Structure formats: C-alpha cells, structure tokens
Automatic annotation (TrEMBL):
GO terms (BP aspect): biogenic amine metabolic process; glutamine biosynthetic process
Molecular function via GO: ATP binding; glutamine synthetase activity
SUPFAM superfamilies linked to this entry: Glutamine synthetase, N-terminal domain, Glutamine synthetase/guanido kinase
Organism: Phanerochaete sordida
Protein name per its UniProtKB record: Glutamine synthetase
Boundaries of every GS catalytic domain copy: 123-483
Homology family: Belongs to the glutamine synthetase family.
Key words of the record: ATP-binding, Ligase, Nucleotide-binding
Pfam families in the cross-refs: Gln-synt_C
Length: 483
C-alpha cells in the first residue's frame, strides 16, 4: 500500500523532486533503529534507475550503540571486509518530513548484492517474505500497533550528563486518559498527532496512559507492511518532535521498576483476495455462534481464525526474541492484572489479562474481528514481531491446528505451577536459547528459517553477553559495603 502521492515511474519521480536538492533515505537494522543519510537528488535518481545503491553492511554487523558483533555472524563480518549491501529504494514509501523542511523521504530494503534477494535479517525483507507467502495462499495481512511510552523532560545531553539516573518525568502522577494532563505540554501533545499525520503516519487514538508522563498512541489499521513502516516511523517522529520541545519520549519497555511497563500491542487479521475479512463469521452464525467452535469464547470467530489463533499459541514461546528483543523487555512481563503484561501462553475473549485477546462480536462488528497480541513491549522491532505473528498464524491454518488449552477464564492460578498453562521465557537469554534450539518452530522454513534464527539469535546472544558482563548500580548498592 503506497502513500497518497507515491510516484509509480521514474518520470513521475523526477517531476516530484524537481525542486529538491536532496533526499533522505533510511533502512532498519535488527534493533529497529533507522539507519540512513541524505543523498543529492541527482544521486538518488541514479540509484532508482540503477536498481539501488551500495550501503555498508556494518549496519547489520553492529548493535544499537555501534559495537560490532562477533565475526561468525552471517551477514556482516570482518572476513568480507564489511562489504556493501544493495539498498533498494521503495518508491511506495515516499513522504515528506514536515519538521525537516519537507525534505523527501524514502525507506529502503537491503538485498544481497550477488543474488539480489533480501538478506535474511533485513526487517522489511523478512516481513515482505511472510506477506508474499500469505498472498500465495490467497490472504492479505492487516495489522495495527499501539505504543505506550514514557516522556522525560530531558535532552539527550542532559540525560547523558545525569548518567541516565534521576530523570525528570514530563508530568507527575498516575493520570490515564486524563483531560487535564494533556493541557500540560499541550503543543507537544498535539504536534505528535498533527505532524505525524502530515508525515503520512495516521493515528487513530492518542491519550495519556497511567504513569508519570506516559502517553499511548494507536496507529491507524492498514496492511501489515505499511503498518510496520508506520510503526517504525512513528517512533522516529515522536523522538524528532520531542527533541524540538526538550523532551525525550522513551519506548524502553520497563524504565521504572515499580510501575507498569510500556506495551507495543499488535492487532492482526487476514482478508481474502477480494478484501473480505477472513476471521469474521457469517451472518447466519452471528445469532448462535459457529458450529464446531472449540469453546464459547471462539464461537464468533471463523474456523480459519481459530486455526490462526492456535498457530500463534503453538509457536509463541519459540519466537519470543522476535516479540521481546531486549534484556529490559522481559522485566515488563510480570503477569497479573495490576500490570496487564501476560507471561503465559493464554487467550481469551476480550481479555486484557491474556497473551492473545480475541476481539469479535458481540463487542465489535464481525468485520472488525481480530486478535490483539499483548506480549510485545514498546521496544519491539515491528517488522520482526509482525513477521513472527503472521508466520505462526499461517502455519496454524496450514496445519489446521486445534486449540490445546481452554481460555484464560477457565484457568486457575495454580495451573501455571502444575504445567497446565505453558509459561513464556523469563529472560532474553532463556528466550534466545529456546528460539535457537534444534527443532524450534522458529527454525521452520515457513516461519522465520535457519538463517534468520542463526543471525538474529547471535545478535541476541551478544546482547545477553553485554548484560552478563555489566556491573549495575543495584549490585554496587547491595554488595559494596556488606559483601
């Protein structure tokens, strides 16, 4: 799905850029960080005509702080001298950045320069592969993302000077859905909504969430690739607009130990080739529910939807690093109704305590039937998270998987201890080990595949290694005197 005025030909592109001296381009690395640069318009047009341009592969060879990964990782290492990848410009992503003088902006995907195929860990390439696989089966993937994020009245420099401690929240107190708190920092609050709309990242909802300086923003539902692009660019927008107001919006999953964390909830559904919702039941089934439903909480979703749900639940523990990719993210998954951050393989009708929330009649019209995956935090890479969810769901349809557990409403707290309910990994280290093990669902070619698992898993092992070697303030305070 293209932006409103995206060019279809090189001639249209030349006309579009005739008054522009430069263009901004960017791709996405495995940590979900935009990596890009300005190009002269002349160079940009040449790259479009030539099928792409060279971009240093080191962006897949280092972490979010530019520390290089071990040389044995697949894509970028010392052995090949960090050679160039081929960056292919996606004209459908055209938009202009309103807070940067309306400079033209395009996203790129990264290809192997020899095969011209997507590299195994390029976020846009991974999602493209999954959505094309869905299209081959007659399905269109649709999604929506919601972000919760803390705001701090700080600049990057002031936060660094404070060594990232004692940061000042944008506002004080717990004020979810507050009409008062939005009047504080009103220009910033409204700029987030208005400027992103100009950037063609439309929002559906925007409000305060519980916690000091917390906002929640829901992005407008659209095709999966467009949704991932918009989710990625919303973070970029928020951080850019925040800098102009002396504010740091943080998408860290758990910046405060004693407060709820920040979610990155994902809504997903399928449509057939004609655009008809696949998860919806027929008109005749709306009255009494679908015959053969697994239970009373799935009677208003289609059989394909039930298989899709079973597929997500079956593979969820094996793809956790794709949903929760950071050390900090697992500290958010504490379970319980206080924080609504599920840490088990559960589902339920309109249940915010479950990992997968079924949203269907009678709470919404049948056409709006969808699943909300509540496991990811705001620190997710939206491309990998959507890829994993849709790949698992499509696997469930292909295998016609059955739901193996009852809904969360029929479970008891002790079921988590007896093994009746499968718990999710409690750390990035445990999650990475599970994803990378032989026989992992993530390794299946129809899910994420060996190449992705080996490379991305290696980057997560790097993250774990840095954490295990770190000496934290907590350790010094606890052990310095009394150990």
């Amino acid at each position: 799905m293209a932006t409103k005025f995206a060019p279809n030909t090189v001639e249209e592109l030349k006309e579009l850029l005739k008054n522009d001296a430069k263009v901004k381009v960017a791709g996405v690395d495995v940590d979900g960080v935009l990596r890009g640069k300005y190009m002269s318009t002349e160079k940009f047009l040449s790259a479009v005509s030539g099928g792409g341009f060279g971009f240093c592969s080191v962006i897949f060879g280092w972490d979010m702080h530019d520390l290089v990964y071990p040389s044995e990782l697949l894509i970028s290492n010392r052995a090949n001298g960090y050679r160039d990848l081929l960056a292919r410009i996606d004209l459908a992503t055209y938009r202009r950045i309103p807070w940067e003088g309306n400079v033209p902006f395009f996203l790129v995907s990264f290809l192997d320069p020899d095969t011209r195929e997507p590299i195994c860990a390029d976020p846009r390439g991974v999602l493209k592969t999954v959505t094309e696989r869905a299209a081959a089966k007659g399905y269109q993937c649709y999604a929506g993302c919601e972000y919760e994020y803390f705001q701090f009245k700080e600049t990057p420099q002031s936060a660094a000077d404070k060594k990232f401690t004692n940061l000042q929240p944008l506002t004080a107190g717990m004020h979810g859905y507050s009409l008062l708190r939005t009047q504080l920092n009103n220009t910033y609050f409204n700029d987030l909504f208005d400027e992103t709309a100009k950037f063609e990242v439309p929002l559906e909802g925007h409000h305060t969430e519980t916690g000091p300086g917390v906002y929640e923003t829901a992005l407008a539902y659209t095709s999966a690739m467009r949704m991932a692009d918009n989710a990625q660019l919303f973070k970029y927008s928020a951080k850019s607009i925040g800098m102009q107001h002396g504010i740091i919006p943080s998408f860290m999953a758990k910046p405060w130990g004693n407060l709820p964390g920040c979610s990155g909830h994902i809504h997903v559904s399928l449509r057939d080739a004609s655009g008809k919702p696949v998860f919806a039941v027929s008109e005749s089934e709306l009255k009494n529910g679908r015959e053969g439903a697994a239970n009373s909480e799935t009677k208003f979703i289609s059989k394909e939807a039930e298989w899709f749900l079973a597929g997500i639940l079956d593979g969820l523990p094996d793809v956790m690093p794709a949903l929760v990719p950071t050390i900090n993210g697992y500290k958010r998954l504490v379970g319980g109704e206080a924080f609504w951050a599920p840490n088990a393989v559960t589902y339920g009708y309109d249940s915010r305590a479950a990992s997968i929330r079924i949203i269907c009649p009678p709470s919404v019209p049948a056409a709006a039937t969808r699943f909300e995956v509540r496991v990811p935090g705001a620190d997710m890479n939206p491309y990998f998270a959507l890829s994993a969810i849709f790949a698992l769901g499509l696997r469930g349809i292909e295998k016609k998987l059955s739901l193996s557990t009852p809904p969360i409403s029929q479970l008891q707290p002790e079921d988590r201890k007896t093994g009746k309910v499968q718990m999710l990994p409690v750390s990035l280290e445990a999650a990475t080990e599970r994803m990378m093990r032989k026989g992992s669902v993530a390794r299946e070619a129809s899910v994420l595949g060996d190449d992705f698992v080996d490379h991305f898993g290696g980057t997560r092992q790097h993250e774990v290694k840095l954490w295990n070697e770190a000496v934290t303030n907590w350790e010094v305070e606890r052990y310095l005197e009394l150990a």
